[in-house]
Specification:
Helix 1 crosses helix 11 and helix 5 packs across helix 6. The strands form 2 sheets. The chain has a 5-stranded parallel beta sheet with strand order 7-6-5-8-9, with helices on one face. With 305 residues, it is an alpha/beta fold. It has 11 helices and 9 strands. It binds phosphoric acid mono(formamide)ester.
Length: 305
């Protein structure tokens, strides 16, 4: 039985297989419509979500399966003090596969030790978000066509941004990748990510607090929101929340083939006027999430079509 807690739980070859299946699903959706008949996905979300939860549910429904779950801790028995271990021991008897989001780093790993069915980490605190990274990789493949020899700019909250941490882990496995880390001092990439995925691998990187200075160098600009829910005081959040705002003027500094990605939700960090720029790929990106999650469900349930 396989779990996906970290993006590195999947090899580069397995990610290629998932992308191939996702592409086949996009081209031939009817081929997959009964693939997971009588299978149940549980979405156990102890933290808010729009894209991840609903795309997982849409994915399972589009495979002919069923879904159950909860969308906030308050409507589960966690509100009465039940542990993650007990919740999972029970829910793994009700479902064939579980996608779980939790505010505590490491909670899905704990869950995997108490589950009799595959656990997918759908985001754990400021740690990792592997299925967002699968979404990002499918987007990059479609928008740019390759993973190697790319200059990837990551901008905003690199400290708490779990999507950033997982994407860096994934991209660090491709040759010729360079990272440009754009953040305020207080929101710099944490050392557990920088050391393991960049420094230990001798990957070229630049750290800066100026988006304008590096715009013209980038193949990908991965924008992120400042993660309000991870701050200990509101004053710091208010001071940092608008550190970077991507505008039409800043887009003029970028190359014609650059792509803007964002895991969403957006707050203020991309002006809505940028949405009309063909280089703005973030809504297309959100759509890819459903298809790569369909491919992942098939893989973890060992269903072949
Ligand atoms: N990208 C992402 O995780 O979005 P949600 O929080 O809406 O699931």
């Amino acid at each position: 039985m396989r779990n996906v807690i970290n993006i590195l739980d999947l090899s580069v070859e397995e990610i290629e297989e998932l992308i191939a299946v996702a592409d086949d699903i996009i081209a031939n959706p009817q081929k997959y419509q009964d693939a997971c008949q009588h299978k149940i996905l549980a979405t156990l979300f102890f933290e808010p979500s729009t894209r991840t939860r609903l795309s997982f549910e849409s994915a399972m429904l589009s495979l002919g399966g069923n879904v159950l779950g909860f969308s906030e801790a308050a409507s589960s028995s966690a509100a009465k003090g039940e542990s993650v271990a007990d919740t999972i021991a029970v829910c793994s008897g009700y479902a064939d596969i579980i996608a779980m989001r939790h505010p505590k780093e490491g909670a899905p790993l704990v869950a995997s030790a108490h589950s009799s069915v595959p656990i997918i980490n759908a985001g754990d605190g400021g740690h990792y978000h592997p299925t967002q990274t699968l979404t990002d990789l499918l987007t990059i493949r479609h928008e740019i066509g390759r993973f190697d020899n790319l200059t990837v700019g990551l901008c905003g909250d690199l400290k708490f941004g779990r999507t950033v941490h997982s994407l860096i882990g994934a991209m660090s496995r491709y040759a010729g990748v360079k990272f440009v880390l754009i953040s305020p001092e207080e929101l710099k990439l944490p050392s557990f990510v920088k050391q393991e995925y960049i420094k230990n691998k001798d990957i070229e990187y630049v750290q800066t607090n100026s988006l304008e200075e590096v715009m013209g160098d980038l193949d990908i600009l991965y924008m992120t929101r400042v993660q309000k829910e991870r701050f200990f005081n509101e004053e710091d959040y208010l001071r940092l929340k608008d550190s970077f705002i991507l505008t039409e003027d800043k887009m003029k500094l970028a190359r014609a083939d650059m792509r803007v990605l964002h895991p969403l939700p957006r707050v203020n960090e991309i002006a809505t006027a940028v949405d009309n720029d063909p280089r703005a790929a973030y809504f297309r990106q959100a759509n890819y999430g459903k298809f790569i999650r369909m491919a992942l469900i098939l893989k973890l349930l060992e269903v072949s079509v």
